[in-house]
Specification:
Blueprint lengths: L5 E5 L5 E5 L13 E2 L2 E2 L17 E3 L2 H5 L8 E4 L3 E2 L31 E10 L2 E3 L9 E4 L2 E13 L2 E4 L2 E4 L2 E12 L2 E4 L2 E4 L2 E8 L1
Parallel strand pairs: 5-6, 6-8, 7-8, 8-11, 9-11, 10-13, 11-14, 12-15, 13-16, 14-17
Antiparallel strand pairs: 1-2, 3-4
Organism: Haloquadratum walsbyi J07HQW2
Protein name: GLUG domain protein
Length: 206
């Protein structure tokens, strides 16, 4: 019988670890769903779940978070904390691409109309660097429901309607906390750039 090809890792001292090819040791410093250059492309249809209210798409890493932009009507559920620091290196330094919005400010917005349940988890280190774009945030324009999420150490730069969580809100935001820095030409806050919707129990700090 032919044995599987093996990798051998010899560590100084007396520890020898032998793993079959293709099996991860768990020592890798790069999280699943991202590379050293930033998040990788993930098709939203490949996420666990169905995107329905009863069986939402599950998000476990920053690449899956970015995939939300491909289905703005779906329902999403965060299932763990996310380190989004590698967004600083994605899209040629422009960072995370906001979910929904009207980045050219041409009056033809495509809002997020689904739901996002953060389940009280935290996204850390989200970077968006789009100084010429409008409606900039994790969600560029929200007409859906965003709940129970904390964003920390965000760095968000846009033109107008700039917020760490939502650039332009026409929907519902509940139980959210944002801390970090935001910058732009007009209508800028750590939480929401422009609010025309319902916001309940939301906190922000610079």
């Amino acid at each position: 019988m032919r044995l599987p090809q093996q990798n051998t890792i010899l560590m100084t001292g007396f520890i020898l670890i032998v793993l079959p090819m293709g099996v991860s040791s768990g020592f890798a410093g790069i999280a699943h769903g991202q590379t050293d250059a930033g998040p990788i492309d993930v098709d939203v249809s490949d996420l666990p779940g169905e995107g329905t209210e009863s069986n939402p798409y599950e998000i476990s890493n920053v690449s899956e978070l970015q995939a939300m932009e491909d289905d703005l009507d779906a329902n999403y559920s965060l299932i763990n904390d996310i380190d989004a620091s590698q967004t600083a290196r994605s899209d040629d330094g422009h960072g995370f691409d906001p979910t929904g919005g009207d980045p050219s400010n041409e009056g033809t917005p495509s809002p997020f109309t689904g739901s996002f349940d953060g389940n009280s988890y935290t996204i850390t280190g989200l970077t968006i660097n789009r100084p010429t774009e409008s409606e900039v945030g994790l969600f560029g324009r929200n007409s859906g429901t965003v709940t129970d999420i904390t964003l920390t150490e965000v760095t968000v730069i846009g033109d107008v309607f700039v917020g760490g969580l939502v650039g332009y809100n026409n929907g519902t935001i509940r139980n959210t906390t944002v801390s970090g820095s935001t910058d732009g030409a007009n209508l800028i806050t750590e939480l929401i750039g422009q609010n025309n919707g319902n916001v309940m129990t939301a906190r922000a700090s610079g």
